[in-house]
Amino acid sequence: MDARLNPFTSPTAGKAFKHLMSVGKVIKDSALSATTQELVSLRVSQINGCAVCIDMHTKEATAAGETPVRLHLVAAWREATVFTEAERAALELAEEGTRTADGAGGVTDEVWARAAKYYDEEALNVLVLLIAVMNMANRINVITQQPGGTYVAGQFH
Questions:
Q1: Crossing angle, helix 11-28 and helix 34-48, to 10 degrees?
Q2: Are 117 and 89 in contact (CB under 8 A)?
Q3: Which of 25, 18, 66 is closest to 42 using CA atoms?
Q4: Where do the domains of the chain lie?
Q5: In whole angstroms, what is the distance from residue 117 CA to residue 16 CA?
Q6: Taking the alpha carbons of 13, 46, 51, 60 in that order, is the dihedral positive or negative?
Q7: Which CATH homologous superfamily contains domain 12-143?
Q8: Taking a C-beta distance cutoff of 8 angstroms, is the pair 153, 40 a contact?
Q9: Of 17, 127, 137, 148, which one's alpha carbon is 20 to 30 angstroms from that of 25?
Q10: Which top-rank group of organisms is this from (predicted)?
Q11: Phi-psi region of 119 (alpha: psi -120 to 50; beta: other; left: phi over 0)
Q12: C-alpha dist (Å) from residue 125 to 30, 46, 54, 130
């Protein structure tokens, strides 16, 4: 598959992507664990069908020491026993935050309360930013048909 556009060659999109990369760095440098960030990024990307982001976050998680078993089970995290309760709360928040059009009312109070049980206000802010940024990146990549499979861990660091 060939991409419809290369946003990095557009003066306007290129400027915007510099800002998006800056936001991504702020999130990456936050106190929220790299494992949680990669699991959430991967799950959001799976839901949205973003091949390039699934490729990226699978490889970044692997480079950070994540196990193949956990990566393979992210899509079925509810039935898997390999995730902590905090990770499960973050994955649930990511799903409801991604499927806002599917669920009347967006993120439920129950899902928010479960996340707040494990994450303080700062970490919740980071999770919300991460979920929103991933959804935006996924949509740009899906609309422009960015192919997955060639990402190298650390490529954008």
A1: 140
A2: yes
A3: 66
A4: 12-143
A5: 35
A6: positive
A7: AhpD-like (1.20.1290.10)
A8: no
A9: 148
A10: Bacteria
A11: beta
A12: 10, 22, 23, 9
Query: What is the 3 state secondary structure string of 83-106?
Result: CCHHHHHHHHHHHHHHCCCCCCCC
Specify the amino acid at residue 18: K
- For the chain, 157 residues long, give each residue's pLDDT as a single digit of tens: 788 888 778 899 889 988 998 999 999 999 999 999 999 999 999 999 999 999 999 999 999 999 999 999 999 999 999 999 999 999 999 999 999 887 667 899 999 999 999 999 999 999 999 999 999 999 999 999 988 878 888 777 6
